[in-house]
Design a protein that fits this description.
alpha+beta, rod-shaped
Amino acid sequence: MRGGMGNMQGMMKQMQKMQKEMEQTQAELNVTEFVGAASNDLVKITMTGNKKVTDVVIAPEAVDPEDVEMLQDLILMATNDVLSKIDEATKAKLGKFASAIPGF
């Protein structure tokens, strides 16, 4: 009976350690900056890992008053690009924790 309790305590310690590592990894991701770009960097959007926009850069040649829809499309492309990069980095860094937990 005692061996079972010791095993449970060891598992709990391991889970607490893994939770602390996950929190640290998430904190690192939250302050990491990611840049998404569209069409030869005509539009670049910078976000942190917690998906807060920190910068938007629009090249002057992307601004055409006669074609506002193109600029809107470029902004959408850059936004989706940076969000994909954040999701990929999050999966790469936090996915290892999910694979260590049975049932995930």
